[in-house]
């Protein structure tokens, strides 16, 4: 298998395409790249099983999967090699994604990631594809492959959903299952504000990572991982009760940071910090830690963030005395209702600093401050610096 792995590495380096290979009877397969969405992985399991049903020899198969995916397949010396997916033209997948959404349990985030993966598959023109098929076959069998089989490659349309029972059993042996268990633990820890567990899990997740040798493809692969982690962490923080505007601001900031990265080590450090940052915001902003009365009070403040509700207004809405509300609110948040309201207004104004609509006069009016001067005063009390200095630090 080691010799086959070397050949798979070469193919990956030449084509920038995932390569899967397996030995008949081993019950497992290996991949040069390991970042495929679950639906694509399952298709790969089906195709490997199909290749093992084909006669052994020097014939390279052109296999067809879902979403216009193409693969090269070869069965030789009790080994199966699957190269792909790639495609022959760029396609709009919006209708396909709608059909998948209606007929599967995938979330919208998972669908977005699947579509992103499909749009980034390599594109081979038909004539070039035939030459690459010859290269694949010649490298694997250490000899020239039969060119006649390349001129008109046989096609096999695979329908991997629903996945066959054998494929499910095959998939259960793969490291992907452990990966999803780990991912679920990380998201649960974010939701519960368990920073220590988040940091420990992320440290473990990077302990045995596999980064390809080709730097450009490795960077693309790692960016896919970063986008995935940001998207899932966003959902976990939102589900924990963090203000959607704060979550959206943090998510957009990470999207821009990921896009700017061109160094593998810096990108890995960024990924490690994403869940921890969301977790810290859960600890700071989540409402789950508060009693019902305080949660309802904070919700009212958020819903009326562009005006100013008095303690009396909130107490009346909640049908409690203002004395009881003031006492309970300060006990649980450490702040008076007035102080908490001002702090929340400033935090929600942060994303707008430096934007076209984000001059101080507009922000003061938008968030219910009596003047721009009072906005600046409260801003400095909350953030420790003036709006101008804060914006300069966080451009």
Shape designation: elongated
**How are strands sequenced across the largest beta sheet?**
2-1-5-4-3
The proportion of residues in beta strands is 5-15%
Mean pLDDT over the full residue set? 75
How many angstroms separate the termini? 51 Å
Organism: Photobacterium rosenbergii
Protein name: HTH araC/xylS-type domain-containing protein
Pfam family, one: HTH_18
GO molecular function: DNA-binding transcription factor activity; sequence-specific DNA binding
Q: How would you portray this structure in words?
A:
The protein has helices at 2-15, 38-53, 94-102, 108-119, 126-141, 147-151, 165-171, 175-191, 195-205, 215-239, 244-260, 264-285, 292-303, 311-318, 322-333, 337-349, 360-366, 372-383, 387-393, and strands spanning 19-23, 29-31, 61-64, 70-76, 79-86. The chain is an alpha+beta fold and 395 residues long. The chain has three domains: 2-171, no CATH class; 175-285; 292-393, Arc Repressor Mutant, subunit A, CATH 1.10.10.60. It has a five-stranded antiparallel beta sheet with strand order 2-1-5-4-3, with helices on both faces. Helix 8 (175-191) packs antiparallel against helix 9, helix 8 packs across helix 12 and helix 9 (195-205) packs antiparallel against helix 12 (264-285). The radius of gyration is 27 Å and the shape is elongated. The relative contact order is 0.07. Residues 144-177 and 208-217 have low confidence and may be disordered.
């Amino acid at each position: 298998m080691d010799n086959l792995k070397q050949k798979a590495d070469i193919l990956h380096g030449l084509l920038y395409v995932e390569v899967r290979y397996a030995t008949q009877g081993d019950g497992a397969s290996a991949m040069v790249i390991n970042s495929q969405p679950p639906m694509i992985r399952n298709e790969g399991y089906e195709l490997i099983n199909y290749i093992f049903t084909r006669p052994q020899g020097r014939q390279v198969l052109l296999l067809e999967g879902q979403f216009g995916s193409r693969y090269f397949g070869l069965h030789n010396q009790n080994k199966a090699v699957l190269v792909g997916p790639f495609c022959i033209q760029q396609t709009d997948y919006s209708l396909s994604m709608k059909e998948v959404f209606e007929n599967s349990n995938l979330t919208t985030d998972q669908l977005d990631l699947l579509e992103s993966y499909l749009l980034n598959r390599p594109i081979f023109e038909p004539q070039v594809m035939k030459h690459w098929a010859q290269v694949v076959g010649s490298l694997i069998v250490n000899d020239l492959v039969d060119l006649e089989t390349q001129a008109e490659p046989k096609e096999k349309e695979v329908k991997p959903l629903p996945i066959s029972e054998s494929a499910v059993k095959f998939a259960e042996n793969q490291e992907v299952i452990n990966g999803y268990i780990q991912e679920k633990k990380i998201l649960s820890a974010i939701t519960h504000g368990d920073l220590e567990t988040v940091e420990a899990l992320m440290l473990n997740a990077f302990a045995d990572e596999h980064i390809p040798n080709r730097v450009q493809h490795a960077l693309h692969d790692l960016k896919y991982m970063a986008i995935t982690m940001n998207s899932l962490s966003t959902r976990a923080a939102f589900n924990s009760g963090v203000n959607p505007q704060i979550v959206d601001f943090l998510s957009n900031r990470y999207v821009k940071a990921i896009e700017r990265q061109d160094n593998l080590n810096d990108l890995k450090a960024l990924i490690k910090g994403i869940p921890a940052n969301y977790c810290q915001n859960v600890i700071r902003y989540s409402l789950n830690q508060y009693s019902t009365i305080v949660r309802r009070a904070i919700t009212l403040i958020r819903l009326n963030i562009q005006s100013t509700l008095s303690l009396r207004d909130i107490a009346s809405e909640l049908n409690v005395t203002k004395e009881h509300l003031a006492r309970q609110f300060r006990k649980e948040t450490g702040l008076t209702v007035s102080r908490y309201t001002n702090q929340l207004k400033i935090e929600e104004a942060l994303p707008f600093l430096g934007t076209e609509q984000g001059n101080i006069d507009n922000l003061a009016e938008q968030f219910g401050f009596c003047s721009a001067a009072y906005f600046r005063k409260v801003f400095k009390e909350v953030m420790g610096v003036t709006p101008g200095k804060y914006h300069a630090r966080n451009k």
